[in-house]
């Protein structure tokens, strides 16, 4: 999801006119960024937006032995209240030599955490 100029301005915290990095940004990142000239800063900003968009838009992938049944994007932010993320329904193998594999379908809520996916098991879906 692309941020607008208004979003950036609303989140800017200033100290005497100079933007202050959010506390969540590690010091080693902040110090490295602050040493860059304006041209490099703009290139870093563009690259960061592109990287964030790429991570947001990456499709949900399952293992080769799993069967993807349905994916429902709700556009949420994956907050701690259980909202957000993506609903995924998939069938999975039991890991044994079984004539009934794959089993399911099962529902999961998938949320992005950095570059990783966190899969939360919701339960079996009635077919």
Can you walk me through this structure?
It is a single chain. Helix content is 28%, strand content 31%. With 127 residues, it is of the alpha+beta class. It has helices spanning 5-11, 27-34, 38-57; strands spanning 13-15, 18-20, 67-73, 86-92, 103-113, 116-124. The protein starts with a helix and ends with a strand. It is elongated and about 65 Å long. Mean pLDDT is 78; it is low at 75-81. It has three helices and six strands; from the N terminus they run H-E-E-H-H-E-E-E-E.
- List the helices and strands in order: HEEHHEEEE
- How many H/I helices? 3
Alpha-beta classification: alpha+beta
Low-confidence stretches: 75-81
Give the overall shape. elongated
- Distance between the amino and carboxyl termini: 33 Å
Strand order of the largest sheet: 3-4-5-6
- The share of residues in extended strands comes to 25-35%
Question: Topology, pairings included?
Answer:
Elements: H1 5-11, E1 13-15, E2 18-20, H2 27-34, H3 38-57, E3 67-73, E4 86-92, E5 103-113, E6 116-124
Antiparallel strand pairs: 1-2, 3-4, 4-5, 5-6
């Amino acid at each position: 999801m692309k941020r607008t100029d208004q979003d950036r301005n609303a989140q800017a915290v200033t100290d005497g006119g100079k933007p202050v990095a959010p506390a969540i940004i590690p010091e080693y990142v902040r110090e490295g960024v602050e040493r860059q000239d304006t041209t490099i800063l703009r290139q870093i900003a563009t690259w960061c937006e592109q990287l964030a968009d790429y991570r947001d838009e990456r499709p949900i992938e399952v293992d080769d032995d799993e069967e993807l049944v349905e994916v429902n994007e709700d556009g949420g932010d994956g907050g701690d209240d259980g909202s957000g993320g993506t609903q995924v329904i998939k069938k999975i193998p039991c890991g044994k030599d079984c004539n009934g594999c794959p089993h399911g379908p099962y529902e999961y809520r998938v949320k992005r955490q950095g570059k990783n996916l966190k899969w939360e098991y919701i339960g079996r879906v009635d077919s």
